[in-house]
Known about the structure:
Elements: H1 7-21, H2 29-34, H3 42-89, H4 97-116, H5 118-126
Helix pairs in contact: 1-3, 1-4, 3-4
Amino acid sequence: MLARVPLWGWYLLITGGLYAVYNPLGYSIWHLWNTRDPLALMPWNILLTMTVMFPLACVLWGVQRTMSTWGLAAVLTFLTVCMWAVLVVVPNLGSSLAFWAWVTPPLVAVVLTMGWQWPRIWRNATGAVTVDDPHTHSH
Length: 139
């Protein structure tokens, strides 16, 4: 069933998960733990945190396995340089913390979606198919 989710669907799911961790509106896991007494609703806080963090942890694990640590670092470095180039062109854009709070999750979601779905993207781009034949011995 998850194999039928299109690339843009994964992007939206991952972006939603990242905004659930933190967003400037105040409705996030970070605000849940830091703005109220966390002990008052501890079971609900833990349940909501696990509901959001477990899928994101699975995505991060899959991205790390697909891209390796060096590949992920290279992509994040490229993304950082692109953001830096935008800030050089429009210098006043980066002065707002709210701007970065809204812009960063979609950019990180691009990296995570590409890493999470890289085998599918590679297969579609190259036409390569992975075949496991138990009767063939590796030499």
